[in-house]
Amino acid sequence: MQLIHRTVRLRAAWVCALAGFVSVLWAQPAQPSKASLNAAQVAQILGPATVPLRNQATLALPANAIFIPLPAATAVLHSMGAAADDRLLGVVLPQGDSSGVVAVQFVDQGYVKDTDAKRWKADGLLKLLKATPPPSAPPSEVTDWSIPPVYDATTASLQWAVSTRIPNAPADTSGVNYNAFALGRAGYVRLNMVAGAAQWSQQKAVVQALLPAVQFNETQRYADFRSADKAAPFGLAVLVGGALGFAAGVLSGRLGGAPLGAAFALSGAVRNISLLWSAT
Fold this sequence. Notes:
- About 25% of the residues lie in helices and about 30% in strands.
- The chain is an alpha+beta fold.
- It has an eight-stranded antiparallel β-sheet, sandwiched between helices. The chain has a three-stranded antiparallel β-sheet with strand order 2-3-12, with no helix packed on it. A two-stranded parallel sheet has the order 7-13.
- The longest helix has 17 residues, at about 1-20.
């Protein structure tokens, strides 16, 4: 009975969470256009620098990276075929390489409880993601974890990445979808990069260094949460399954603008949500 009630609660949580993600490309993205990069060059912030992330946090931009603020960042993503909404804060590019674009977002859906990180099953999450891949053009599929979900309770941060490929296509179409989350009192900062497998191998160290570089302001840290604060209606597992594609993989925007097929796929995925937790 507890498992049934938990499944119902998680179904509602997934639907709420899906509306909160910025839409990004699921498959390996196109290169940014020359025009968008020219505009970005005018607005760029060169590392090392401290970049404010709204009134919530800061990003200690390393010396080998560039931060592109709004509105130039939106133009860069649009030129790559990705959509962005008001949760986008900017994009990070490694210096000297415009192909590795990391979207930086703040999602103010409230405090995300981390208790389910102690119970989730990485194998179950992977099975769920393989069974219900997000709609994309061309169609992509999940093949394995590139980085299994890892949650650090000390820093309140989560990161994971999946390997993807386009079925019946050459081997060079394989890619990686990387997601990292820094949790705060009122929401979370999300870092997302979709890249080819070779590109990811070259830039993995630079991209992963960004997560510990995000620091929430005093009073906005995860540990500053108070019982009267807004709490998100979902836990960390949704930041794995939900972030992967149903909220982020359709070019038409948020769930409300997604094809009906995507909604039915989501419904089927949530019916299998019990795979993520051990019975208690």
